[in-house]
């Protein structure tokens, strides 16, 4: 297989994630007990090919991203050999030009693309907020078999939230017939998951054309060129969730607690890698009761946990009750407190005897260190 360049793009709908992105990049939103959102697209790319360039387009709030990725060694990558580079990005969003896939991010990093070796044939663009275990090898095989110029990834009959900024594809067989933006009143179409495969030569041509015309949105340009290029579609099988809101994050977290979703995401030959941490095993006290929960290492549990995810180094005190909730790293639920249908961000504290409760349709988010 020829060398592949994978680009993890920024998400255009970060504002819908509210305080989850107040102190961190969207890439590093914690999920599933020990993972970050970027672990899914990055692992998908690493599982695709051994010979790989990866560029991660960051944001102005990039510190958490740099801290998480380090040198890329936990994904068998290395910044020293240019296998992994964190690229500048998010400039267009800061000046108000919000796009589905920002061409400005590619233009700002033109040097990265120019320096790719001659044997890079395909460029894979991947959304950073897509939770799925995607088999890119199968997608590349289909792309080549179709002799496609580009292949857009979509999820048929998507059952999650579709925000007003999402893009839908009108598909006929493997062909993309039309691209529909979220503000379009027309019905129908399948959810585009912000990921695609494109031939490198065409990508560079589009980049040059975009610079010349001052275009902002990559997908808008693709829409204008549907009749000029061979644009195919690929329906991603299995579990796919777009983390585009607090509700979507909560729903995805609850899905991970189900056996089918958990096995599909984490127990395949295509592993999901993350930053390694050496923690002591979880400590369960005499009064601890845990049912249908995912509890990461380093936690201390003396209360009751049911149908919830508890991250590393969280502390659940005696008499505390947790149900249908996400308790992030370092969060503390003190004695006799009750937390139901809530998300506690890192190092948040629920004081003794307090009640934090809501419904599954409107989960409460307690901010980081609150």
UniProtKB/TrEMBL annotation:
- Give the record's keywords alphabetically: Glycogen biosynthesis, Nucleotidyltransferase, Transferase
Q: Which GO terms describe its molecular function?
A: glucose-1-phosphate adenylyltransferase activity
Name the SUPFAM superfamilies on file.
Nucleotide-diphospho-sugar transferases, Trimeric LpxA-like enzymes
The record's annotation in InterPro entries points to: ADP-Glc_PPase, GlgDAde_trans, GlmU/GlgC-like_hexapep, NTP_transferase_dom, Nucleotide-diphossugar_trans, Trimer_LpxA-like_sf
Q: Where is the Nucleotidyl transferase domain?
A: 24-154
UniProt feature coiled coil, ranges: none
Q: Which GO terms describe its biological process?
A: glycogen biosynthetic process
What positions does the domain Glucose-1-phosphate adenylyltransferase/Bifunctional protein GlmU-like C-terminal hexapeptide occupy?
A: 285-356
In the record, the note on similarity to other proteins reads: Belongs to the bacterial/plant glucose-1-phosphate adenylyltransferase family.
Q: What is this protein called?
A: Glucose-1-phosphate adenylyltransferase
């Amino acid at each position: 297989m020829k060398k592949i360049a994978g680009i993890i793009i920024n998400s255009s709908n970060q504002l819908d994630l509210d305080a989850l992105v107040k102190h961190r990049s969207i890439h590093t939103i914690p999920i599933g007990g020990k993972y970050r959102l970027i672990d899914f697209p990055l692992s998908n790319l690493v599982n695709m090919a051994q010979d790989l360039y990866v560029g991660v387009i960051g944001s102005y709030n990039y510190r958490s991203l740099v801290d998480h990725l380090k040198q890329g060694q936990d994904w068998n990558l290395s910044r020293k050999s240019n296998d992994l580079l964190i690229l500048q990005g998010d400039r267009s969003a800061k000046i108000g030009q919000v796009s589905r896939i920002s061409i400005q991010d590619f233009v700002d990093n033109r040097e990265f693309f120019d320096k790719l070796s001659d044997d890079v044939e395909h460029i894979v663009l991947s959304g950073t907020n897509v939770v799925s275990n995607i088999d890119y090898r199968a997608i590349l095989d289909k792309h080549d078999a179709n002799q496609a110029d580009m292949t857009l990834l979509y999820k048929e009959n998507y059952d999650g939230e579709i925000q007003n900024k999402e893009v839908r594809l009108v598909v006929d067989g493997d062909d993309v017939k039309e691209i529909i933006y979220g503000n379009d009143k027309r019905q129908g179409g399948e959810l585009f998951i912000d990921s695609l495969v494109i031939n490198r030569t065409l990508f560079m041509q589009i980049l040059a054309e975009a610079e010349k015309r001052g275009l902002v949105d990559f997908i808008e340009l693709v829409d204008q060129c549907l009749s000029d290029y061979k644009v195919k579609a690929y329906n991603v099988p299995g579990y796919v969730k777009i983390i585009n809101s607090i509700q979507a994050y909560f729903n995805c977290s609850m899905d991970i607690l189900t056996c089918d979703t958990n096995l599909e995401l984490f127990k395949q030959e295509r592993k999901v890698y993350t930053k390694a941490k050496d923690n002591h095993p979880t400590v369960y006290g005499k009064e601890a009761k845990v049912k249908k929960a995912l509890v990461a290492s380093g936690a201390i549990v003396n209360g009751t946990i049911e149908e919830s995810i508890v991250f590393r180094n969280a502390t659940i005190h005696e008499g505390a009750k947790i149900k249908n909730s996400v308790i992030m790293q370092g969060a503390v639920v003190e004695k006799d407190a009750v937390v139901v249908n809530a998300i506690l961000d890192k190092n948040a504290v629920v004081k003794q005897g307090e009640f934090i409760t809501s419904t599954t349709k409107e989960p409460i988010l307690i901010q980081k260190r609150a």
